[in-house]
Amino acid sequence: MDDRKKNRFKTSRRFFLGQAVTAAGTAIAAPKLLDSLSPTSTDQANAAMLSSQSEVGKVPITLKVNGQTRALTLEPRVTLLDALRETLGLTGSKKGCDHGQCGSCTVLVNGDRIYSCLTLAIMQEGNEITTIEGLAKGDTLHPVQTAFIENDGFQCGYCTPGQICASVALLDELKRGCASAITPNLSQTPKLSTVSSAEIRERLSGNLCRCSAYNGIVSAVQQSAGQSPPSPIATIVTSEELA
Amino acid sequence: MKSFTYQRAQSIQEATQKLMQARTEVIAGGTNLLDRMKVFLDEPDQLIDISRLSFNQIQPTSQGGLRIGALVRNTQLADDATVRQNYPLLSRAILSGASQQIRNVATIGGNILQRTRCPYYYDTGFACNKRKPGSGCPAATGLNRMNAILGASDQCVAVHPSDMCVALAALDAIVEIEGAKGKRQIPFTDLHRLPGNQPQFDTVLQPGELITAVILPPMSAAKSGVYLKLRDRSSYAFALVSVAAIVEISQNKIKTARLALGGVAHKPWRATAAEQFLIGKSVDDDTLQQAATLALQGAKPLAYNGFKVEMTKRAIRRAIGISANGGGLA
Amino acid sequence: MVSSLNRDLNRKDGRAKVTGSANYSAEHPVKDPAYAYLITSTIAKGNIRSIDTKAAEKAIGVLAVYTHENTPQAAKPTNNWAASKIYESRLPLSDSQIHYAGQIIGVVVADTFERARDAAHLVKVTYQTETPNVVLNQSTFRTAPPNFGEEMAFKIGDVKAGFAQAKTTIEATYTTEMELHAPMEPHAIIAEWNGDNAVTIYEHSQWVALSQRTYAELLKIPPANVRIISPFIGGGFGSKAFPWSHAVLCAIVARQVKRPVKLVVSRRQMTANVGHRSETEQTVKLGLNADRKLCAVEHFAKTATSPVENFVEPCVIITPVMYASPNLKIDQEITTLNVGVPTFMRAPGESPGMWALESAIDELAWASGMDPIELRSQNQTTLHQRKNLPFSAKFFTDCLTTGARQFGWSDRPNKVRNIDRNGTLSGWGMAAATFPGYRGQASAKVRLLPNGTVHVMTAGNDMGTGAYTVVAQTAAEKFGISIDQVRVELGDSFFPDGGIAGGSQMTATLTPAVANACDEVLKVAQAKSLNEAIAALQRSGKDFFEAVGSAAPGAETKQYAFNSWGAHFCEVAIDEAIGRLQIKRWLSVMNIGRVMNAKTAASQVRGGVIMGIGQALMEECLLDPKTGLPVIYDLATYHYPVQADIPRIEVTFVGEPDLNFNPMGVRGVGEIGITGVAPAIANAIYHATGKRLRSLPITPDKLLS
Ligand SMILES: Cc1cc2nc3c(=O)[nH]c(=O)nc-3n(C[C@H](O)[C@H](O)[C@H](O)COP(=O)(O)OP(=O)(O)OC[C@H]3O[C@@H](n4cnc5c(N)ncnc54)[C@H](O)[C@@H]3O)c2cc1C
Ligand code: FES
Ligand code: FES
Q: How far apart are CA C675 and CA A81, in angstroms?
């Protein structure tokens, strides 16, 4: 605690906040509690100080996202996920847990799937980042996206971008001969055309889906792998058929 | 997460020197450190990113083993052809941990030095001797289903959560350490420590020391090694208990045995007494039962984790049995 | 005419969801948002002695810190389901009292998320701590209050006399732990004020129109000045129907700081602040007479509620709906624990209730030597025994027989502990499923454009249930066009009240209103068909014709009782030596009236089944008995199923449209899937191992031989 305090003083921003300023530059009244502790002048200098205060601790960060180079100014503590969602407006990557426990923030970095909530944006400088927004080519969906639609691989859709990014990477991992914990023979990894549903399920277990569209997701991967998945559609038995 | 300054280390020396400064931590994959920082378990002022340093290779050693750089990613190690072939239990242990997304980022060093997942440690709303020495251990008398049955103290009942480390313990691995004062090597099983009355220290690393590599000695028996992990759901869950077992059979008798346990102690637990007992025995139910009993000798279950004793014994019997049959998926 | 119903169309909202362009609550672009982060209590009972916000206020980027000492209060809402409804009756920050761990005690507003979170941690709180009670069986209980006006207690005949006639009697106690809804999208809100008197609330809401009225009351502004925008909901399961305290607070502080404020509840904070299903303890006693008929049925339950809300998980009410007995008695008690607010969670009452009842029925089947399917089919009731009304379009027997045939039930060995080919124990289990058919009132607007596009607008919404798709299908069928010609906009309070996406009633409630709105627009056009209407529109030179249509339940609820029915069948493989269980096969046969879309409806059933598998095998939120703080508080500790746990789930629908219920003939499908799942699994485990497990979740330690 004491260390922290010391540190905070060191950063030299003991000026005050009777005002807060929007980016548009309009000064707004701060709440009472703060007013009682501070001068409430509304002068421009104070406002300018505040906007410069907002830059404290921020550093320039350059990210390559979906083929575009984006220059940002962020605190180093900003995660890749928050940079995508809050700064770049790429809200397709979802925040489900913020702790690497759900998979909804999955993006591709140099083709590998990672959780964007458990890495800092600044650590990803120089890497090729692909998010869900970067998978389709114009109006043409990525085949995995199409397969998700056709196999009803989602319900609420919140985990879906993460599931799709994970699935795209998974197909590539299979091509590269990556193993999973349940691969029976580690020196004979499964091929796309014959990979079992159990393998697919193990390999996609880092993506939770509370709506539990799990069956549809497996089918979507099977379809993308060139297999013929079982139909997502229910069987309907009419009363006549029963009679 | 508290704010900090961030720097990319240009060399190990720079990193170890910086690490001597107060409130400084190194970040590799970040999947454990950032997780902790987000809930204020760690509040460094300075983060040194070592992830771009060059100790990220897997190389054969002159003895016929492997030298694995500490920055090798978990996936890279699990998928390495030599590891799959010669140390399959290591591949399986790694692959049974976390998820592909985490393993793609997580480093070997980071995996080894990840901290406990004890829910009392992980929430600053609780007291915790590991977080704040002297504040108490509510887990010891609380809901301790996931906690330790071996080697715990009244100050701390946390377990080490890593799967990979259980395999490394069984494989007689060596850890290469580099600090401001130079390099040293220690057996992997000596790296992590028991909590005793200093549960704040997970390992014997000194301030400023980094793990630079893990060395696997050659071990032909390891080809039949087995990793068995039991958990509350089929994937993406920490172990309730886990076992790494390597037995070598010659003329129907056990020639060498290596047995390590996970999910049971503050460190990857090597069951040496059971190993000794196994040597020269034939693999039958009775032998396995006695070995399992020996391995769990001295176990002190807590209010909610008594099942771990029996579960670990079963896992030991199963894993040794499979290893004796040539290994494979457990 | 193109019939788009009873088909398997892809989701209308699919493209938006697979491309990441669907905006959820925290994702609506607003200009220059500030970020709010909650400060929550680290004790479970007591009082805040002091709260020191100085360090937080001085932190960079912090705009304001609000606690009970400086926060303008919301107005007390009517909270009666009609005018308004909030989950937690106690308004946020209303005093210094602490009732449960994790309770909101303040909020920081800052210019970035990181700064808000950091500053929240800098707030220093001292408490006067009292000993909390979070342990169910250390509590005193009272009679449970009515739920939706229905008393828990109900009685037919004389159970004592009934049991005296029984040839076989079983009695057992079953328990479930606290469960979390844990939707993938965390609870989130953006509140954007326009002056002091009008606000736009971007927040997932299972009932947009009621949410609008509720915020209006809380914020003392006219409902017309509240706009709720909720086009997509990232899962709710009952936890996103009404405003929670964090959302009320966000709306209040946004008015103060005069800037749009975004608040996302962290996954940990969700443990206490956005609802849960209470733990339950239920005792069921069943008596079967020589004629293999239930002669006495008793079901008694205990559940918990929170100091800040009275909610009963109505476990027992399903029992008189399932099985006929001349002697029947149900009752329930509750206690108050220092926990957050328990609330509706997928099949509230039915889910734990069926766990106990359908386990007990299986026990009775074994005890009496009867096949469990036969026992169920012979003892089902044609009458809703509480309402004394016949069920409409009930095809429960078809669920049982079709399921038995498709699953091959006749091959099931009639003894326990059978070994399969892999040397593991194999067990087959089944259980019934049911959920009431609810239907509410709804309106929709249909607008016809000169190019032939039909535009349907309603405040009702889609949590992933498929509403976008079935609404489009309804209009498409009405007009004989493809659903590509229909545009659907949902979840905006500017549109007519579309009712609640809850109680599995959205389709039954909304689609008749959409159908009526289509008729109404033809009337406006004075046309008999869509083509005539388009021609009339083109002639008129107007931009569009539009009309609102409504629909509501009528006298049928006095003539019939409505329920959906089903049966689950499963096979488990158990490696008893190490406590490892795998579900090998699953079949669910459901009778839900007309199936609007066999693809999305199948997904709803699967979703329910999988949540039930979670409940059966792993879900439990546990609180430290001393401090009352949760030790299960995130998605690493609160396990719910991952892909690797889940086999292929076959879904079959039987029966006919329930035209007594509504003109579309549809009943709900969202919740029935979870009912009966846990007992089907426990029954299969019994068949595999001979071990009757009566406490959920059935984790590996309990399976160890
Ligand atoms: C949801 C979830 C589930 C998980 N499940 C499992 C599981 O089932 N099994 C399992 O084994 N693991 C599991 N993990 C943990 C995961 O394996 C670790 O997070 C990961 O291995 C850490 O590696 P890292 O490189 O990201 O470490 P970092 O987070 O970068 O570092 C971890 C710690 O080690 C220090 N450090 C890192 N490298 C070095 C070095 N070379 N020298 C000195 N110090 C160093 C850091 O300062 C830090 O304190 C899980 C994690 C999550 C989030
Ligand atoms: S948000 Fe990253 S894994 Fe959940
Ligand atoms: S689709 Fe809703 S969480 Fe996966």
A: 37
Residues of C catalogued as catalytic = 671
What's residue C503's pLDDT?
81
Contact predicate C182/C640, CB 8 Å: yes
Instruction: Name which of A76, A114, A202 is nearest B6 (Cβ-Cβ).
Output: A76
**B241-250 vs B253-262, strand pairing mode:** antiparallel
What is the pLDDT at residue C407? 98
- The encoded tokens of residue A116 equal 């964007």
If one counts the domains in chain B, the total is 2
List pLDDT tens digits, range C113-140.
Answer: 999 999 999 999 999 999 999 999 889 9
B122 assigned to some structural domain: no
CB contact (8 A) between residue C622 and residue B310: no
The total number of residues written for chain C in this structure: 705
Cβ B49 under 6 angstroms from ligand 1: no
Within-domain flag for B146: no
Distance from CA of B149 to the nearest CA of C (A): 15
* B87 shares contact with chain C (CB less than 8 Å): no
Q: Is B175 in the pocket of ligand 1 (CB under 6 A)?
A: no
DSSP state, residue C144: P
pLDDT given for residue A50 in this prediction = 58
The overall average pLDDT reported for chain C is 96
Task: Give me the domain span that covers residue B252.
Answer: 221-324
Phi, psi of C52, rounded to the nearest 5 degrees: -105, 110
Residue A45's pLDDT is what?
52
Minimum distance, in Å, between the CA of residue C242 and any CA atom of chain A: 18
Query: Beta A68-74 vs A59-65: how paired, if at all?
Result: antiparallel
Q: What CATH number should be reported for the domain holding residue B32? A: 3.30.43.10
> Lowest mean pLDDT: which of A227-241, B22-36, C549-563?
A227-241
Show which of B18, B37, B52 is a domain's final residue. B52
Contact A164 C186 (CB under 8 A): no
Beta-bridge mates of residue C425: C419, C574
C634 and A97 within 8 Å at the Cβ level: the answer is yes
Given a cut of 70, is residue A30 above it in pLDDT?
no
Determine the distance separating the centroid of ligand 2 and the alpha carbon of C272, expressed in angstroms.
20
Least Cα distance to C679 among C346, C280, C353, C294 occurs for C353
| Index of the ligand 3 atom closest to the CA of residue A212 | 4
pLDDT greater than 60 at residue C630: yes
- Distance from Cα C617 to the centre of ligand 2, integer Å: 23
pLDDT of A25 > 60? The answer is no
Inter-chain residue contact C18 with A164, CB threshold 8 Å: yes
Mean pLDDT of B262-275: 98
pLDDT digits (tens, 9 = 90+) for A162-192: 999 999 999 999 999 999 999 999 999 999 9
Q: Are C488 and C4 in contact (CB under 8 A)?
A: no
- Give the pLDDT band (50/70/90) at residue C155: very high
Give the CATH number, domain containing residue B285. Answer: 3.30.390.50
Instruction: Establish if B21 belongs to a structural domain.
Output: yes
Instruction: Round to whole Å and give the CA distance between C361 and C694.
Output: 13
Amino acid at C648: R
Looking at all shown ligands, the one closest to residue A115's CA atom is 2
Share of chain C above pLDDT 90, in %: 95
Whether ligand 1 lies within 6 angstroms of the CB of B30 is answered as yes
Which chain B residues are closer than 8 Å to C627 by Cβ? 125-126, 138
Indicate whether B316 belongs to any domain.
yes
C184 lines ligand 3 (CB under 6 A): yes
As given in the structure block, the two tokens for residue C183 are: 């939707």
DSSP code, position C323: B
* Segment C500-528, tens digit of pLDDT: 888 888 889 999 999 999 999 999 999 99
Residue A92 scores a pLDDT above 90: yes
User: Residue A33: which pLDDT band, with cuts at 50, 70 and 90?
Assistant: very low
Cα–Cα nearest to B242, from B257, B225, B262, B260: B262
